[in-house]
Design a protein that fits this description.
This protein is α+β, with helices and mostly antiparallel strands and 204 residues long. It folds into two domains: 101 residues, Uridine Diphospho-n-acetylenolpyruvylglucosamine Reductase, domain 3; 70 residues, UDP-N-acetylenolpyruvoylglucosamine reductase, C-terminal domain (Uridine Diphospho-n-acetylenolpyruvylglucosamine Reductase, domain 1). It has five helices and 13 strands. Strands 10-13-12-11 form a four-stranded antiparallel beta sheet, with helices on one face. β12 and β13 form a beta hairpin. It is globular, with a radius of gyration of 19 Å. The model has no long low-confidence stretch (mean pLDDT 88).
């Protein structure tokens, strides 16, 4: 671990749930630091087994986005940190943990931030202004604590989560004219007759 090796600059990952592959693909970030600031090189396989090596520039990083080819499977990465006193690293990690416990629903089942922050504002602020804090559909709920976190209260289906997310997007669009974009990557297909229409939160 970076902490054990006395390498600083990675404390922000202490507050991000998930794995390295997702962090590389989504340019995961927290506490004013992003993955792209630490990545030197990424290694990947394509679907035919060919090995690819991508530089930081090749990854095409932007806010919560990478333009690296979608068919690549990231297998490893080289990161750059800085020598730092372990006590300072631990203090930074503790600050991240304290922040999470104070403002985020870390003890519930969530996927982290649901929507990307629009330019000039925060997703949670627009969700709150649209009256969606605590909004619940089936077993899915927008957290009353941090309303850009979507919670599975224990019985949520993929349909509940998608329906809730699109309902929130529709209400924010109606309330402020801002089009929220999903930060969570969703995979899979809906059961015929149970598709969720984008923005409207209604069945097709």
């Amino acid at each position: 671990m970076a902490y054990e090796a006395g390498i600083g600059g990675f404390h922000f990952y202490h507050g991000i749930p998930g794995a390295v592959g997702g962090a590389l693909r989504m340019n995961a970030g927290a506490n004013a630091v992003e993955t792209r600031e630490r990545v030197f090189e990424v290694r990947a396989l394509d679907r035919t087994g060919n090995v690819h090596t991508l530089s930081n520039v090749d990854m095409g990083y932007a806010y919560r986005h990478s333009s690296a080819p979608g068919g690549l499977i990231f297998t490893s990465a080289t990161f750059e940190g800085v020598p730092e006193d372990k006590a300072a690293i631990k203090a930074a990690m503790d600050a991240v943990q304290n922040h999470r416990e104070t403002v985020q629903p870390i003890r519930e089942k969530t996927g982290g931030s649901t929507f990307k922050n629009p330019e000039g504002t925060s997703a949670w602020k627009e969700i709150d202004k649209a009256g969606c804090r605590g909004l619940m559909i089936g077993g899915a709920q927008m957290s009353p604590m941090h309303c850009n976190f979507m919670i599975n209260t224990g019985t949520a289906t993929g349909y509940d989560l998608e329906y809730l997310g699109e309902t929130v997007r529709a209400r924010v669009l109606e309330n402020s004219g801002i089009r929220l974009h999903w930060e969570i990557k969703r995979l899979g297909n809906f059961r015929p007759g149970h598709e969720v229409q984008e923005f409207l939160g209604q069945l097709l």
